Amino acid sequence: KSKDTDFQALYQLGVMHYDGLGTNKDPEKGVEYMKKILNSDSPEARHLRFAAAYNLGRARYEGYGVKRSTEEAERLWLIAADHGNPKASVKAQSTLGMLYSMPDLKDLKKAFFWHSEACGNGSLESQGALGVMYLYGQGVRRNTKAALECLKAAAERGNIYAQGHLVEYYYNRKFFSTAAAIAKRTTENDNIEMLATMTDCLPAYVAKGVAIAAFYLARCLHLGRGIEKDEAAAKKYYSKVSWEGAGELLTLIHRGKNRSHFLNKCLC
Question: Nearest 5°: CA angle at 158, between 153 and 164?
Fold first, then answer.
């Protein structure tokens, strides 16, 4: 009832219609309300414009409630990100980092820029992404020291993707006991949706982190590296390698790491 006089109410109602919270889903109406906020000149709507632009960008990217358009999603997220303004949408800044890592708009220098902005503004997801970019020299000169700093900091804050890559980092440098210990902690909880909600990270990257950690823990158990050999337990952890994680592991293999008959048999 107050949506016509209160922009905060209009925003909240838009979210409720879009997600079907307390009412039937009506994504078109949710998009309509977000557009009203974004296009308003009222000072009372100013603090909501960045969040509205982020939500509209997401709707455009997913084609939910509006025609799908990656280009329009990019435009809206750039508005929401506002050149890295810490008071703008940090989620949009991190999302742009992800977007410029995708095949359609791949530009790793832009991806690194936006992840750097988002990380500086507190994004946990972008902190983990930066660690991986530094580790493999993606969009930036390879810097193992910076990679380790980012991955450790993100892992301590709960970034599962960062934890998985830390396991891989230590395993390949033959710090097997450290790799196994981190992997064991990372795989204790494999409820991907819950972990994604807790850390505000994308479920697909949480799944990749769990899968990488599970794979290297299985290797440690299978070969008795840094932990007591236990083939039955190794089989259990090998089974945790999801399809998302398998794709990530194949990427690691193609970089020339851990080629083995078992690995090829496991993933192909």
Answer: 80
